[in-house]
Design a protein that fits this description.
heterodimer; A: mainly alpha; 78% helix; B: 219 residues; mainly alpha; 11 helices; elongated
């Protein structure tokens, strides 16, 4: 056990300090430099898109059936898109860990998990608030709702898994395996409204016969979708940066501890 | 392969009382439910299938933690990792053994517990059929959870959190099949075949993914 931990430690520190060659971004320093350049741009785009999307959303006319509550859609649907999008980022991160052993792959999926959980929660909460006036209930065991609740549990379980395995390299690989298994849920969520005819309405934007939304609702929705995408990208880059820094600090602390031990040993 | 099966069966039957603890736990769960929901026979009969399934699910999860734990501790797991037998096959056999000491006894004793819950006749048959066909899926997908948490000191709780969401579809369709027989207009076969399909899918998927997790955990 002790042997395996030491090898993992060295392996991990090697991963963090330098391993150029796989691709340019495998080098965390280079990645951090890129983040520093790109991030302000992303923040601005996010703010602009959110402003335009919210303004258009609030100035959209009331729906003839749903009245004002239709505006919940402009938050609910983008949140749900990004909840599944975050999971797909984690899936690609998991493939990156298992197949290419890319040093930043685990950082990417690890940073995406809390964001995905937050978007999932937002989707469930706004859906619940929307469902109360429209369906007359906060919650119903509909196929779409249930599969989405399971997505939230998978997110939380993964976060717990990452936290409970101490060695970063091992926790990365274990989480990657579970992420891939949990990916079964994503198509289930997507097609649950087609397979089971329960309360939640079927897809109305991504349809083979074109969107079933009126343009005055569709455009604000798409802009809000883009805004949420950029919101995710911004937060994700920030979270990745923080995770890299956290690992660098950990490596430095370990180096410090390693250098300190022999001197005290020699004195005694 | 056969030797492995015999070894695993012997180990799981002789250590820790074999199937008895899981059965007792199952009994405890099933007996507590009437206290929780009240002794109304009509209500109990309608939820009996669900009760049996919840009991079976929890009892199966209970034993999962030990699937690879003992082997990891005494080094047998390292032998399996470098051995001749393909690792997914080893996992398959171990999952099968886990099922024989949990899922199978639970299925066979279902009539006894059915009495407590007022379950008899065709619904009881349906419950037994779904348990027989559906519980292997818990063992197979549970192997993945067991493989992921094998190196953790207290992995049992996390294992349940990871595995339970994946068991939800089986429970939905299994209980749906039982309900179909006990006087619903829905047909029995579609949910039952879904349960069988999920079990078969997990029987293929589980061992390979669990083997991957075991290899990654040791690499």
């Amino acid at each position: 056990m002790s042997i395996s931990t030491t090898t993992d430690k060295t392996d991990n520190s090697a991963q963090i300090t330098a391993r150029p060659g796989i691709s340019a971004l495998a080098n965390p320093t280079r990645f951090l430099a890129l983040v520093r350049v790109v991030l302000p741009f992303f923040v601005l785009v996010t703010i602009a898109l959110l402003a335009v999307g919210l303004w258009l959303g609030f100035s959209a006319p009331d729906d003839y059936q749903q009245g004002r509550t239709v505006r919940i859609m402009f938050v609910h649907v983008p949140a749900v898109w990004m909840a599944m999008g975050s999971y797909m980022v984690m899936v690609s991160g998991a493939l990156g860990v298992l197949v290419w052993r890319h040093p930043l792959a685990d950082v990417a999926s690890r940073a995406a998990a809390p964001l995905g959980a937050a978007f999932t929660f937002l989707g469930l909460a706004t859906g619940s608030i929307w469902g109360r006036p429209m369906w007359g209930t906060w919650w119903i065991w509909d196929a779409r709702l249930t599969s989405f609740l399971i997505l939230l549990i998978i997110y939380l379980g993964l976060i717990a898994l990452w936290r409970s395995i101490e060695e970063p390299a091992r926790s990365a690989r274990m989480a990657a395996v579970v992420i891939l298994v949990g990916a079964i849920n994503i198509p289930i969520i997507k097609f649950s409204v087609d397979w089971f005819t329960t309360l939640h309405q079927p897809a109305s934007v991504l349809r083979s016969d074109g969107p079933a939304l009126a343009p005055e609702f569709l455009y604000p929705l798409l802009i809000m979708g883009l805004a949420f995408l950029f919101l995710f990208l911004t937060l994700h880059l920030m979270a990745m940066r923080n995770e890299i820094m956290r690992r660098q600090i950990r490596t430095l602390q370990r180096k410090l501890a390693r250098n300190r031990k022999p001197t005290s040993g020699h004195v005694s | 392969m056969k030797a492995l099966l015999i070894r695993e069966l012997r180990l799981s039957l002789r250590s820790g009382g074999g199937a008895i603890p899981a059965l007792l736990f199952y009994a405890a769960v099933v007996i507590v439910i009437p206290f929780a929901v009240g002794p109304d026979p009509i209500l109990l009969a309608t939820i009996a299938g669900a009760c049996l399934w919840i009991g079976a699910l929890l009892a199966s999860l209970l034993g999962l933690e030990r699937m690879f734990r003992d082997d990891a501790e005494d080094g047998s797991l390292d032998q399996m990792l470098i051995g001749q037998t393909p690792l997914p096959l080893v996992v398959f056999v171990k999952s099968l053994v886990h099922w024989t000491v949990t899922g199978l006894p639970l299925t066979l004793t279902a009539p006894l517990f059915g009495i407590f819950l007022g379950l008899e006749g065709a619904p009881l048959g349906a419950a037994m059929a779904t348990l027989a066909v559906g519980t292997p899926s818990i063992s197979f997908i549970g192997a993945v959870g067991a493989a992921v948490t094998v190196s953790m000191a207290r992995g049992g709780l996390l294992l349940s959190v990871l595995v339970l969401p994946l068991c939800v579809p089986v429970v939905i369709f299994a209980v749906g099949a039982v309900r179909a027989v006990s006087g619903s207009i829905d047909p029995f076969w579609p949910p039952f075949l879904m349960v069988s399909g999920i079990s078969l899918l997990f029987a293929v998927l589980g061992p390979f993914v669990a083997a991957l997790a075991l290899r990654q955990g040791h690499g």
